[in-house]
């Protein structure tokens, strides 16, 4: 799998609950439509392990078969619609991409 990993923080005027509801609701409806999307995992962050990790609300891992499939999704109308919905929301995010390696399953 090739993943797009997004770490996001809500806009300052939103509550954590509002942001998670939007992310898993209205925004999810657009995300599900991304061409080539194989899996999507979302984690609601409810606490930080240490002080330097505070201030984040959630993580999304969007999985594709290959870097090329992710590039197609990022060039799609569906991605453009998801980005437009975010608009000038004023939240923060970190977005990174890479190959997944399964390290352990229990």
TrEMBL record:
Residues 12-83 form the EthD domain. Gene3D superfamilies: 3.30.70.100. GO terms for molecular function: oxidoreductase activity. Coiled coil: none annotated. Pfam families: EthD (PF07110). It comes from the Bacteria. This is EthD domain-containing protein. The lineage of its organism: Bacteria, Bacillati, Actinomycetota, Actinomycetes, Kitasatosporales.
